[in-house]
């Protein structure tokens, strides 16, 4: 077990190094960093001096080493646009994205898994068929359209919910949360649903497909032949076996909820990292882009690691092979 | 004797787009206490349907359309789902074919046993666990207390089947339906499981319905047999009577298709009542493309000579955490002479298929030589050289379903080797050759424009054979070519292989776990175990006077259809 985790950790570090290389290349070679930092009236001598100070004249691998050294300490330099340390910017924005993503993920799983199980068990019922039709709609409608429709109905016509921003937030030790105020919670509803719908429909379909497969397995048939109750068969045997392969994809989906909150955040003007990233792209704010890239990669790597360890806990067959 | 299970006039239908398909037609069977009733038939005969219908486990769109099923005096075919569920496991239970997939992989044996026990009996967790332990003991699992907390994958196939049996016996059912309980097991394990089933029935006085395609299993264990053919029971009677003196023509042809273990026949007597084989087209091999295989350089001595072949699989990781060595092939040597059929026999895991893969170059050996037609195949460096020899040897695989590409038409499947080795001068010629080959293996020219899924297992195996012939090989490796097929189809395919060998002077390496098949097909035989060859002998000598203990053991375990008939005379089949 320890060995297995160490091996996975080593692989994760490798992945992070590759992503860091890309981020570094972005920083160093997309445009001239010095040009991006200084104004037009800076003389050539000043530029050269700045270049020297920034270490841009050193060998590439020395620069890369320095980049990694800084990154590990959480130092990604200054945003070109906002003239603030990138780390501070991300730290300010992170709680918003995190809260939105967590609520969406919980929504997607808490609704998606039961719906998937229901549609697999009652394949022919009218409710299952309508679930499946709805999920098709959910999968085909683009996120921004769902967001805009929600805004139109609940924000503009019915005037029930706020249409943009996070509402009032409370700051607890540097972490801003919208969970504690009424307007914060109200503001969260529509973006969270918008972000969750695609993932939810995906979860429904995944669970359903996998569970139908498992229900055909010999061990389910044998369980029925032994007279076990359908409850035992469906939930202790079939559902558990369904979740093993689905776990990987669900894990990655949670990663992508965080990574691709961008669209939802733009639609709802949600002050999260996605919005920051969009603005960074518009302004060629390379340090922000590079840091965001690394952060997202890091989140994916961590989720992957967690999923791998979960696999290990759930599936006894792996435990033996790992030994 | 009391009748436990009474199936009367059972009719099972499957609704399909083209109307109802009748899977069981007016089936009447009675199972008494303490009796083992065999239901035998080929695939599609409807034997599993009977078992599923009795258990109330028919899957949609199947339904009982007529007749009754009575269990211990109570009619059960019309029970509500929940009522039927309560009977399953307690009064009637079922064992399935594949022990590898019959158990939930994520839960320990104890959890699975305890859940089943507590579903049916009012026992506490501890009592249920004790009962589970006794059950494991009863089905012959050594050290049951420790084994309880193991997961299914930690058991071997035979042990897993014992666990499955223990699970089926949890609440002491009076009727046990065993659907092909030993088909997925090696002969030695099969014998043990059959012994176990027999003694369980004897001790408990339960009745057992054993469903199988294997006449050997029937001969071994059943008191009475019902023979099924296309959904109907064509004949029921005492085992000796049915095997020794069957009344129905289908039973006779089925029995004649079973490879005999006691004497070698030239061919399997042709069996009617089975899938029409289609007449084989005749070719004048002197002038035909297929006959021009003799231009290979002559070989003095054996065509294939294998010396000290060794292959080691290393498992475990690169980081050195518990490296593991498996000697899959360990110092194997043999010669195969021109025109002979050489058999390689052994149980699963003995390394026999690995030898075939080494010879064809799919694996590279760690040590040893493979001399083929005078060249050492292990020393060939370039692809061109290798291909020259690969063209001369072809392989036929076990599984007819996965060994042909389902997205290619039969024409392209057979033409592929011709194109690859550039053996024809024009597209028209390729086309003609493929047509002739298909005709020659008994599929007919019209097969060319179809896809593999339109064919049965036996017909697909013919496609594989046609494909193998398409390079005009002189050496054919058959790796369990018929073990996925029904006996009658097996008889046809084996006949075809024999005919082709005689016509084309092929040399064959024939790999099988099935000793009677080996006896029918091979001139000489090598017995393999744990990667080593234990004995090589003329096949008649091997069967009559085996030298090695293990060979004797295998021969002893081989299910024999030799039984004393009711009249007391010995009938051997």
Describe the overall structure.
The complex is a heterodimer of chains A (323) and B (573). By secondary structure, chain A is mainly alpha-helical. Chain A has helices spanning 2-29, 33-37, 44-54, 60-72, 86-121, 126-140, 143-157, 182-215, 218-225, 230-259, 262-267, 273-282, 286-314, 316-322; strands at residues 170-172, 175-177. Chain B has 19 helices and 22 strands. The radius of gyration of chain B is 26 Å and the shape is globular. The two termini of chain B are 31 Å apart. The chains are: A mainly alpha (323), B alpha/beta (573). Chain A binds chain B through residues 3, 7, 217-219, 221-230, 232, 236-237, 240-241, 244, 314-317, 320, 323, and chain B through 55, 57, 85-90, 93-94, 96, 98, 101-108, 115-116, 119-120, 151, 153-154, 164, 167-168, 170-171, 317, 319, 321-322.
Beta-strand content bin of chain A: under 5%
Number of helices of chain B: 19
Structural class of chain A: mainly alpha
Pairing-aware structural class of the strands and helices of chain B?
alpha/beta
Radius of gyration of chain A: 24 Å
Q: Terminal Cα separation of chain B, in Å?
A: 31 Å
How confident is the prediction overall: mean pLDDT of chain A? 85
The counted number of beta strands of chain A is 2
Biggest interface: A-B, 27 and 36 residues
Organism (chain B): Tianweitania aestuarii
Main location (chain B): membrane
Subcellular location (chain B): Cell inner membrane
Pfam family, one (chain B): oligo_HPY
């Amino acid at each position: 077990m320890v060995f297995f985790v160490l091996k996975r950790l080593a692989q994760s570090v490798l992945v992070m190094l590759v992503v860091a290389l890309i981020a570094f290349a972005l920083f160093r070679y997309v445009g001239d960093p010095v040009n991006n930092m200084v104004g037009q009236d800076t003389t050539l001598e000043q530029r050269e001096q700045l270049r020297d100070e920034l270490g841009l004249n050193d060998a590439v691998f020395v620069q890369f080493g320095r980049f990694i050294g800084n990154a590990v300490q959480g130092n990604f330099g200054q945003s070109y646009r906002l003239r603030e340390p990138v780390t501070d910017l991300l730290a300010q924005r992170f709680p918003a994205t995190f809260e939105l993503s967590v609520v969406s993920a919980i929504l997607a799983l808490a609704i998606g898994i039961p719906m998937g199980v229901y549609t697999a068990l009652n394949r022919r019922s009218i409710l299952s068929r309508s679930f499946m039709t709805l999920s098709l709609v959910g999968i085909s409608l683009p996120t921004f359209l769902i967001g805009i429709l929600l805004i139109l109905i609940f924000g503009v016509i019915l005037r029930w919910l706020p249409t943009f921003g996070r509402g009032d937030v409370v700051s607890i030790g540097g972490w801003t949360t919208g969970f504690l105020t009424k307007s914060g919670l109200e503001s969260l509803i529509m973006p969270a649903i918008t972000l969750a719908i695609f993932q939810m429909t995906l979860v429904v379909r995944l669970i359903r497909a996998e569970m139908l497969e498992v229900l055909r397995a010999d061990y389910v048939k044998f369980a029925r032949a032994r007279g076990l109750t359908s409850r035992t068969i469906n939930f202790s045997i079939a559902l558990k076996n369904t979740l093993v392969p689905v776990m990987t994809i669900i894990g990655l989906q949670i990663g992508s909820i965080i990574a691709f909150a961008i669209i939802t955040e733009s639609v709802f003007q949600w002050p999260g990292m996605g919005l920051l990233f969009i603005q960074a792209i518009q302004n060629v704010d390379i340090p922000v882009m590079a840091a965001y890239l690394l952060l997202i990669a890091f989140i994916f790597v961590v989720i992957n690691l967690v999923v791998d360890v979960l696999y290990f806990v759930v599936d006894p067959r792996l435990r033996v092979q790992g030994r | 004797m009391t009748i436990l299970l009474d199936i009367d006039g059972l009719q099972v239908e499957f609704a399909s787009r083209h109307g109802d398909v009748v899977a069981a037609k007016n089936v009447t069977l009675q199972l008494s206490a303490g009796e083992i009733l065999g239901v035998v038939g080929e695939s599609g005969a409807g034997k599993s349907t009977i078992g599923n219908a009795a258990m109330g486990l028919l899957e949609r769109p199947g339904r009982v359309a007529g007749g009754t099923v009575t269990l211990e005096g109570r009619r059960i075919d019309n029970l509500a789902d929940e009522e039927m569920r309560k009977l399953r496991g307690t009064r009637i239970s079922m064992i399935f074919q594949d022990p590898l997939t019959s158990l939930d992989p994520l839960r320990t044996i104890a959890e699975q046993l305890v859940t089943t026990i507590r579903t049916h009996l009012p026992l506490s967790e501890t009592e249920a666990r004790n009962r589970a332990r006794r059950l494991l003991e009863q089905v012959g699992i050594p050290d049951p207390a420790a084994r309880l907390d193991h997961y299914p994958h930690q058991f071997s196939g035979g042990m897993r089947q014992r666990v499955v049996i223990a699970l089926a016996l949890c609440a002491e059912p009076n009727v046990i339906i065993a659907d092909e309980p030993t088909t997925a097991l090696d002969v030695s394990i099969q014998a043990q499981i059959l012994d176990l089933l027999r003694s369980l029935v004897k001790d408990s006085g339960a009745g057992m319905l054993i469903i199988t395609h294997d006449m050997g299993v029937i001969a071994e264990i059943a008191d009475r047999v019902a023979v099924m053919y296309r959904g109907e029971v064509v004949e029921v009677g005492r085992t000796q009577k049915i095997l020794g003196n069957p009344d129905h023509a289908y039973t006779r042809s089925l029995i004649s298709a079973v490879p005999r273990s006691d004497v070698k026949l030239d061919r399997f007597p042709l069996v009617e009542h089975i899938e029409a084989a289609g007449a084989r087209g005749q070719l004048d091999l002197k002038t035909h493309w297929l006959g021009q295989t003799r231009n290979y350089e002559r070989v003095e001595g054996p065509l294939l000579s294998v010396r000290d072949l060794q292959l080691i699989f290393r498992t475990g990781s690169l980081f050195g955490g518990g490296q593991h060595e498996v000697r899959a092939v360990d110092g194997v040597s043999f010669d195969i002479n021109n025109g002979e059929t050489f058999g390689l026999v052994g149980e699963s895991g003995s390394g026999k298929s690995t030898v075939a893969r080494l010879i064809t170059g799919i694996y590279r050996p760690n040590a040893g030589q493979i001399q083929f037609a005078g060249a050492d195949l292990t020393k060939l460096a370039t692809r061109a050289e290798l291909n020259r020899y690969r063209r001369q040897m072809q392989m036929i695989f076990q599984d007819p379903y996965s060994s042909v590409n389902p997205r290619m038409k039969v024409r392209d499947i057979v033409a592929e080797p011709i194109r690859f080795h550039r053996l024809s001068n024009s597209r028209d010629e390729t086309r003609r050759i493929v047509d002739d080959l298909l005709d020659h293996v008994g599929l007919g020219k019209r097969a060319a424009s179809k896809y593999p899924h339109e064919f049965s297992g036996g017909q697909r195996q013919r496609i594989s054979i046609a494909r193998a012939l398409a390079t005009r090989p002189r050496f054919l490796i058959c790796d369990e070519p018929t073990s996925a097929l029904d006996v009658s189809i097996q008889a046809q395919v084996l006949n075809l292989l024999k005919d082709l060998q005689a016509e084309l002077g092929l040399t064959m390496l024939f790999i099988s776990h099935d000793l009677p098949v080996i006896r029918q097909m091979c001139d000489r035989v090598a017995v393999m175990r744990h990667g080593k060859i234990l004995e090589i002998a003329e096949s008649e000598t091997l069967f009559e006077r085996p030298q090695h203990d293990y060979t004797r053991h295998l021969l002893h375990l081989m299910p024999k259809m030799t039984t004393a008939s009711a009249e007391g005379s010995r009938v051997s089949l």
